[in-house]
Design a protein that fits this description.
The complex is a heterodimer. By secondary structure, chain A is α/β, with parallel strands linked by helices. Chain A is 37% helix and 28% strand. The termini of chain A are close together. Chain B has two domains: 219 residues, Rossmann fold (3-Layer(aba) Sandwich); 154 residues, P-loop containing nucleotide triphosphate hydrolases (Rossmann fold, 3-Layer(aba) Sandwich), CATH 3.40.50.300. In chain B, the strands form three sheets. Chain B has a ten-stranded mixed sheet, sandwiched between helices. In chain B, helix 6 packs across helix 7. The chains are: A alpha/beta, B alpha/beta. The interface between A and B is medium-sized, with 31 and 37 residues.
Chain lengths: 205, 377
């Protein structure tokens, strides 16, 4: 579907299907033997797990939102909850634990951050930048892949520019006349725009 | 009057007199927040305590204590609810936590009215209100604690801040406990140690720990495995490096286990020598993830054994453990040079191959150094 390495930002306007695209990319990587880790700031962990369950896809989830709605919610084997989306330390600790488990079993990981825009709603750019600095490096040394969802229109140009420089590439998503397109732009190459559509939960390229 | 931090190994060496500022300086990705909680738990019945929270709701904070089996029966300074638009019934409430002035005023009240004030995340305050202003206020809180004979304990996550900011936070702390990670691609172990105490002399010591629920911080002794082909000199190595060691052997070869104990660079390390590959897996399991590295001893004069050594290496890699090669018997005339060994075993250039003569105790600490360098950076 889309071939990439390292850390990429998935960038596009709201409602262009970024989340579904990211989830389909993850499913695709699972087939190649990667292990999936999903960091959610919008949907509660159970909803994300259910989405993937339909594909019999076992992934692990870091849930940043449940405890702000339901303080009593507890961890499960695959869903680990941090105290709030402000708790970037908690996210980094939990992510490292998941990566460690995968590393010890010799499995590479694909990580989805859904989304960086939400982190930026709760904390300032500088803080998120420092956090990403640590995370992107960890992804590299573990030879993992990660997709960071960023919503267009929610941040100023400076924020986007600052974020972009941390990534190995950007998957851009756009919508024109009700048709959706994506392409991968990196420092070394640029793919052509590819049209895709969403059928139920599936992305068709 | 003085308090204990409630942390194993640290309580043995220091008491915290009133008027002091103690900082838990935590590396990102390391589970450090439990330390502050454990300090509160230890002291909550003996003195008036309060917890300042900035990144979770009071209810979540109470639940976190419960998960460790601790009851939270002290007031909370709620500097979170205001941020997400919730109402708060806590004793101290910061209506707008991003307003440094209001935040500081309430923290000051808390310091005046309590014996122990714990700030759950100085880093979150810095992130919300700005680096300079919070660091300035932090200085004042320290002074206020001194005047009021209270103790201020803070959690500070050392994100890549401006070095000046990190140094100022450190300079404002009378004692610093560093909580760090042992990196090998991911963090495979966590350690803590006192790195600063400005009112008395203490011996630096680092301890590896795990976090258990319920229970909290549990210190453990790191374990290093020594493996290698038959007659490579594993037992000699374990004895050469250890302050004390025992072996269970028969007719000069190890049938059960070598066990040594070394005090080195502030760490207390247990060293286990394994008799052979067959028993390696169960031994790793037995150590329950407390093994943090492997030393593969090879006989530099016996290239015919290298394939077997290589096989053992693959096992350790499977467990994600870092390793070094100890090229033993370098005192013998026909010993191969470490670089030649690297070539013959086709080892990556970043794998340390250290020359050693276990029988003469030469180079044995270089081997340990090489392993610790991988682990601690």
């Amino acid at each position: 579907m889309i071939e990439f390495d390292g850390n990429v930002m998935l960038f596009g306007s709201p409602l262009t299907g970024k989340t579904i695209l990211a989830r389909n990319i993850l499913l695709n990587e699972l087939k190649k033997g990667y292990s999936g880790i999903y960091i959610t700031t919008n949907d509660v962990g159970e909803d994300v797990a259910n989405w993937f369950n339909e594909y019999n896809a076992k992934i692990r989830i870091i849930d940043c939102i449940s405890k702000t709605i339901q303080p009593n919610s507890t961890d499960t084997e695959v869903i680990k909850r941090v105290t709030s989306p402000i708790d970037l330390t908690g996210v980094s600790v939990q992510l490292n634990k998941f990566l460690e488990t995968n590393c010890k079993s010799g499995i590479k990981s694909i990580v989805i951050f859904d989304s960086i825009s939400s982190f930026l709603m709760y904390t300032n750019l500088q803080t998120v930048y420092r956090f990403m600095h640590i995370i992107t490096r960890r992804i590299k040394v573990t030879k993992s892949k990660a997709i960071y969802i960023v919503h267009d229109g929610m941040h100023d140009d400076k924020t986007i520019a600052t974020l972009k420089q941390m990534f190995d590439g950007v998957i851009e998503v756009k919508e024109e006349d009700n048709r959706k397109f994506f392409r991968l732009v990196s420092s070394t190459h640029k793919t052509d725009w590819k049209e895709f559509s969403i059928k139920g939960k599936k992305v068709i390229v | 009057m003085s308090i204990k931090l409630g942390i194993p190994a640290i309580d043995d060496v220091i008491d915290i007199p009133t008027g002091k500022v103690v900082t838990y300086c935590v590396d990102p990705e390391v589970e450090g927040d439990v330390f502050l909680m454990q300090t509160l738990h230890k002291n909550s019945e003996k003195c008036k305590c309060t917890l300042v929270i900035t990144n979770m709701s009071p209810m979540v904070a109470r639940n976190k204590f419960k998960e460790f089996g601790w009851n939270i029966n002290f007031p909370i300074v709620d500097a979170y609810s205001g941020l997400v638009g919730d109402l708060s019934n806590e004793k101290y409430v910061v209506k707008d936590p991003s307003n440094a002035e209001e935040l500081s005023r309430i923290v000051e009240d808390a310091i005046k009215e309590n014996d122990l004030v714990a700030i759950n995340s100085l880093s979150t305050m810095i992130d919300l209100c700005g680096e300079r202003i919070i660091v300035e206020y932090f200085k004042n809180w320290g002074k206020l604690a001194t005047i009021n004979n209270s103790v201020l304990v803070v959690n500070f996550v050392a994100w890549p801040y401006d070095e000046k900011i990190i140094n100022t936070v450190k300079a404002c702390s009378n004692a610093i406990v560093k909580i760090g990670g042992i990196h090998h691609r991911v963090i495979i172990g966590q350690y803590y140690g006192l790195v600063k105490v400005d009112w008395t002399e203490v011996r630096r010591k680092s301890v590896l720990f795990k976090v258990v629920k319920p229970g909290g911080v549990r210190a453990y002794i790191p374990k290093i495995l020594v493996t290698g082909p038959y007659n490579a000199g594993k037992t000699t190595f374990v004895h050469a490096i250890s302050n004390k060691a025992v072996s269970v052997d028969r007719l000069g070869t190890t049938v059960a286990l070598d066990h040594g104990h070394v005090e080195y660079k502030g760490f207390t390390i247990d060293i286990f020598g394994t008799p052979g590959q067959e028993r390696f897996d169960p031994l790793l399991k037995m150590l329950g993830g407390e093994a943090f590295g492997v030393i593969v001893v090879i006989d530099s004069t016996k290239p015919e054994d290298f394939p077997r050594a290589k096989e053992m290496l693959e096992k350790t890699t499977k467990f994600g453990l870092p390793y070094v090669i100890a090229a033993n018997k370098q005192d013998l005339p026909n010993a191969l040079h470490p670089e030649e060994i690297r070539k013959r075993m086709s080892l990556p250039t970043n794998t340390p191959v250290i020359s050693m003569s276990a029988i003469n105790r030469e180079g044995v600490y270089d081997v340990l150094d090489a392993l610790l360098k991988i682990l601690l950076g």
